[in-house]
Amino acid sequence: MSTEDVAAADGGTGREDDWIHKVFLMWHICYAVLIVATLVSLLGDRTAWPAYALLGVLVAAYAALLVPGLARESARLCVAYLVIALPVTLALGYLDANGLVILYALFPQLFGVLESRRIRMPVIVLLAAGAVAVALRHEDLSTALVQVGIALLVSLLIGVFIQVIMREAERRGKLIAELESARADLDEAQHRAGVLTERQRLAHEIHDTLAQGFTSLVMLIQAADATVDTDPAATRNRLALAERTARENLAETRALVAELAPVELQSAPLDTAVQRIAARLGEELGITTEVRIQGTPRVLPPDVQVVLLRAAQESLSNIRKHAGATAVDVRLSYDSGITLEVQDDGKGFSATTSNSTPRGYGLRGMRARVEQVHGRVDISSAPGEGTRVRVEIP
């Protein structure tokens, strides 16, 4: 596993981790210490110039082949280094017993460079056997075995340690990659959910403002057309009311585009805005509308005000389109929570209980809005007995 692979898996950044740098730095320092120690042991021996030359070859091969080989994980460079280092180290040990100190670096290098066990183990056995044979030139068999055995044992410990680190790095890299993938999937899901929620919100806004306003305009224009010849004064009043409704609809459109609060709430508190839209319904239909404010009006969170206003608009719009009512009663009650109730004496409808919502986009949207502020909607109606819409927000 190359350092680039580990770094790429660990967060996908393509940068080597700090600990990777520290491992290789420690590797280089240990090698340099062993070279210096061997060099110091040779000082003063004027006949040791071949050993100096072999030591120089080792250092040159290490710097030219193994260091860049580790950085790029180049198998050819690493193998080329071993082809040079193994015979040179044995030759150095043959000339001077202290040269076998290099085995403490060479054995771990075999573990780090040769990934295949089928190749690594025969090479290690071959090097150990050669080291014992070389050591016999300077020591007896038992001492030679001990020296090489200690070097081999240390290398085994170092090799196992390095392999554990690399496996942990690989495991951590895979885990981080999975976490990054899961996070990306979660971000995408949240984005899609946000887009869907925003689309639903805009759909509700358009239905509660523009669609209702255009419905009012159509009804006023139809009514004006019916009286244009017989009652000019009533026609003019209806056209004036249609003009005012169109202007308010235009203002609502601009507010919707600018993501502002409803126009009614920009210039008046909630209770005044509810009174205005109820009075406008009375003017349009020529029916009695009454608004009762119970309790002391107070400042409400903007989202709660918008929800209550839209609920009132939707309820009054349904009365305009479907109820055929002659009187409408609106009650806005301020207590521990806030309650909006819209009651009409129209024709009503069936198949609706206090805990269910009849089919219709507007009422479904009303319920969705109210639930967003942790409120509830109760709708009760029966044929010939009118309809009551009650919105409670804690």
In short:
The chain has 394 residues and is α+β, with helices and mostly antiparallel strands. Helices cover 70% and strands 9% of the residues.
Q: Tell me the total number of β-strands.
A: 5
The main sheet orders its strands as 1-2-3-5-4
Please, how many domains? 2
The shape is: rod-shaped
* Radius of gyration (Å): 44 Å
SS class: alpha+beta
* Main sheet attributes: strand count, strand direction, barrel closure: 5 strands, mixed
Q: Which regions contain 5 or more consecutive residues with pLDDT less than 50?
A: 1-16, 352-359
Q: Helical region count? A: 12
What do the pLDDT scores average to? 76
Oligomer: single chain
Terminal Cα separation, in Å?
Answer: 60 Å
The helix-strand sequence is HHHHHHHHHHEHEEHEE
Protein name: Oxygen sensor histidine kinase NreB
Keywords: 4Fe-4S, Coiled coil, Cytoplasm, Iron, Iron-sulfur, Kinase, Membrane, Metal-binding, Transferase, Transmembrane, Transmembrane helix, Two-component regulatory system
Domain Histidine kinase: 201-394
Enzyme class: transferase
What does this structure look like?
This is Oxygen sensor histidine kinase NreB. The chain crosses the membrane at residues 24-44, 51-71, 83-107, 119-138, 144-166. It is found in: Cytoplasm. The chain folds into two domains: 3-185, no CATH class; 273-394, Heat Shock Protein 90, CATH 3.30.565. It contains twelve helices and five strands. The protein is rod-shaped and about 130 Å long. It starts with a helix and ends with a strand. It has helices at 3-9, 18-42, 49-72, 75-95, 103-113, 117-135, 141-227, 232-257, 263-267, 270-285, 302-323, 361-372, and strands spanning 288-294, 327-334, 338-344, 376-381, 387-393. α11 packs antiparallel against α12. β1 (288-294), α11 and β2 form a beta-alpha-beta unit. The protein has a five-stranded mixed sheet, with helices on one face. It has 394 residues and is of the alpha+beta class.
